Amino acid sequence: MAGQLKAVYFLMSSVYLTATLFVLTADNRRYFAANPTPGTSDEVSRRSAHRVLLSGESGGTRMRSLDDDMLLPYSSYDQWPRSNLSHVRDCQPVIFGDTTHETFPGHENSSVTSSSTTRYFVTKLADFRGNVKDAYGHYTVINNPLKTFSVVEPGGPNGCIDRRRSTVVKTSKVRGCRAAVNAGFFDSETGACLGNVVADGRRVQDSGGIQNVNFGIRKDGTIVVGYLSELDVLQEDNPFVQLVTGVIWLVRNGTVYVNESKLTECAGLQEYGTMDKFVDVVSARSAVGHDAEGRVVLVHIDGNTEERGVSLWEFAEYLQSLGVVNAINLDGGGSVTLVLDGGIANYPADHCADNQTWHCAREVSTVLCAHDPDGATSNCRVVNMHTSLEVLLLCTIVGWFLQ
Fold first, then answer.
1. Rg of the Cα atoms in the chain
2. Is the pLDDT reported for residue 46 higher than 60?
3. How far is residue 71 from each of residues 168, 250, 330, measured CA to CA in Å?
4. Is 5 exposed, middle or buried (0-12, 13-18, 19+ CB in 10 A)?
5. Between the CA of residue 202 and those of 182, 233, 284, what are the distances in Å?
6. What integer pLDDT is reported at residue 200 of this predicted model?
7. Closest by alpha carbon to 272, among 73, 82, 69, 71?
8. What is the biggest distance separating any 2 CA atoms in the chain, rounded to whole angstroms?
9. Angle CA 213–121–105, to nearest 5
10. Nearest to 361, CA basis, from 341, 381, 379, 346
11. Burial, 28: exposed, middle or buried (Cβ in 10 Å; 0-12, 13-18, 19+)?
């Protein structure tokens, strides 16, 4: 009888283990389908046809955007303002003295488990005429940014050197981004990255004298926002580990700073003719900044140049209302793309080159990325599954011998 009971117990245990393994395997597959490992082909396979069109990838066919919503502060690279820091200091309002940039301690809290949080918003904004309109976009907060925030070259390392342009989707896969948004400006003819670029501690390029606003993080975690000299960028005792250049300092110390920034970034700015339009026109916009806790924030608002979206004045006021302390404007128009876990989450303005019925994501320059802390595993749940299975098997064997 005892032998028969053991046989029944063994059979029941085997069935239970087989069923458990089947459930865990199926759940494991569902987990990876919903949370694909960055860089795998499965990462975009779950996207709908609509999202595939937006991402610019469909099987082996690559769908490119028309680049038909270009929003440029200057008509060519040669017209980007070059000036020394003495000019920038001279242009500072009295309230800021001769300080050309602001520093702020970055957020650092080991008890915070999530690297970033993204929220979608629809809000009412009033233009300078008092007309109220809808604005919609995403707001991403990045905790512990020294470990979870990166500037990424287009398509990955050496993208700026090779003058590559790449979609945010492709670049985000290379770095394993949870959230990613387009960042720096680029030369539309050559694809060259413009301004300062430091990516994960590697100084890719400096601005070569271009005086536009910057956002960066130094090795000690300090956030730096503003105008930088060559010595600032090349500082070795506490170097930048992340750095990107934008155009127009939107919010400075909680104050809308658009007008001051226009005057500061270039002497005789009006001679270029397009800067006022660049600031005033409604369009899709993106920005990077930080809040009062030192968390990095990424914000974008969708739009289409001259049709919908926001001006930089409206954008700055909205960021101010969100409690953003410092923020700079990034590349806008058809470049604006937000990617969450490998899929496009917003609605890029550019039309597809092969069929203008659809919209396609533009190949852009650098990308700002929110990712898990380097060295941390994003597959803890799967590891726990296998651990639970091993414990269950061990308990079954022990139970068998104790009968």
1. 25
2. no
3. 18, 17, 11
4. exposed
5. 19, 12, 30
6. 97
7. 73
8. 100
9. 40
10. 346
11. middle
Query: How far apart (Å, rounded) are the C-alpha atoms in residues 368 and 338?
Result: 10
In the numeric block, which tokens belong to residue 162?
A: 């090779």
CB contact set of 384 (below 8 Å; sequence gap of 6+): none
Q: Is the pLDDT confidence value at 222 over 60?
A: yes
Residue 161 CA from chain centroid, whole number: 21
Q: With contact defined as beta carbons under 8 Å apart, do 305 and 311 qualify? A: no
Phi, psi of 233 (to 5 degrees): -70, -35
**Whole-model pTM above 0.90?**
no
Q: Which of 89-93, 222-226, 313-317, 318-322 has the lowest mean pLDDT?
A: 89-93
Which DSSP symbol is given to 154?
A: T
Helix ranges, 228-379 (H): 230-234, 258-265, 275-280, 312-321
Residue 185 structure tokens: 């400006």
Count of residues making up the chain: 403
Antiparallel, parallel or unpaired: β 197-199 and 338-340 = unpaired
Q: What is the rounded CA–CA span in Å between residue 109 and residue 115?
A: 11
